[in-house]
Amino acid sequence: xxxxxxxxxxxxxxxxxxxMASQTADTDTILVGRLSQKELASRYSWFEDGKQKYQxxxxxxxxxxxxxxxxxxxVVMGTWCSDSRKHVPPFYRLMGALHIPEERINLIGVxxxxxxxxxxxxxxxxxxxxFIVFYKGKELGRIIExxxxxxxxxxxxxxxxPPASHKFKN
Length: 170
Known about the structure:
The chain has 2 domains: about 1-30; about 30-165, 3-Layer(aba) Sandwich (Glutaredoxin). It has 6 helices and 5 strands; from the N terminus they run αβαααβαβββα. It has helices at about 1-25, 35-45, 45-55, 60-65, 80-95, 150-160; strands spanning about 35, 70-75, 105-110, 130-135, 140-145.
């Protein structure tokens, strides 16, 4: 009888270890193609954690608000990439503060070779994450890998001081 109980306990422990391995293995899954905030949140704990911890600067958010109706983004990220894990969740927190709907954010996942099921050849992606900022339908600039100051400060700087070839009136 003890032998049967020992076998049952061993099987139970083994099942628990296998279950935990399958749960953690999903965090290592590399997602490619069009992604959504909801998909990242449901698969990766780092997404919600990073989003909740980030507090955008209120004064910078207020300064950005007049620009938001004309903003769109393409975000190219790797779920495997530490910089993407660090900056994409705060980006979505900032988008929430700016009331920018997800329909104006095109989130694309790439593998380690920067390949995706979405054709990225026209975007010239070398590093991830790459946040491509569109204002009034034209590419204004990019935040690549890490913001210089913060996502919101870099975005405001792009909008207030666009490259010479991209001058816009608000």
